[in-house]
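tool_call: predict_structure(chain=1)
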Amino acid sequence: LTQYWQRNLGALAPLNITDDLLVGGTASSTAKFQVFGLTGSASTSGTLTFAGSAATNLIAAQNKAGLTLGDTNTGNVYLNPSGNIGVGLATGALTPEKLTVSGNASVSGNLTLYAGARSIQSTSNLSLTIGGNSTGNITLNPNNAVAGGAVVPAVTNVTDLGQTTALQFRNIYG
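tool_result:
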């Protein structure tokens, strides 16, 4: 075996360090797991499972390089399809919703809410602002512009449009 392998400070490596490591086959096309000696890339034809704790299960890019999941041959990418996902949260923080984002989020396409009645809301009774200094007109289009669509308050009470201060609506057309 010493003509194929070397051991140095507890590490095992091929004697020729540019050789590929194949497990479960004798060619890269049939092996179940491969590590490529020239590039350092690895691939598997099976499932890669991490069995540590939340603190030790980690997939990371080094030196602040980006991390890409998938390429042009990749189908859908599922991130914990049966659980919740947190972005920008401290390790171990609870994610009360399917997707919890700590900080600002941006969508470059359409944001579509489907499968029943949905809401857009702030928490802790904070104000909710729709639009900013680069927002064009805001169109409310209930019932897909079919006659009978309405924008209504959520409870039976008086709902004001505008404020008693200088920030008032100029015109309300009926």
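agent: The mean pLDDT is 79. Proceeding to next step.
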